[in-house]
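hey so i finally got around to running the thing on that chain from the lab meeting. sorry it took forever, my laptop kept dying and i had to restart like 3 times. anyway pasting the input first so we r on the same page abt which one it is
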Amino acid sequence: METNFNKEREDFEFQKMASKKVVKLKAFYTHMFLYIVGVILYVLKDYVGLPLNIFPVKYLNGLVMCIWTTAFLVSAIDIFASFKIFGEEWEERKMKSILEKKEKKQKWE
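ok and heres what got predicted. didnt touch it at all, straight out
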């Protein structure tokens, strides 16, 4: 009975971790889409010469694009490098370790 409870708890924790990963990926892909739109608008404005003087686009300049590109690359490295370094095997080992420590603390004697 207790092993079944542990298995369910472990599955719940893994599901929670997976949903956090999905939320993080969704936010990254949204950022990537907005970044691509921003790059296209910047190129059209500065290199093609289209008069795009609407509110957010008129403030796109080289400095803003450098800062945005840096932020985008940092978030990409954070997501994909951490997924490679801290892969599923690492997550499973860490989760089991945490759950075992919790279990030892909660035992009634």
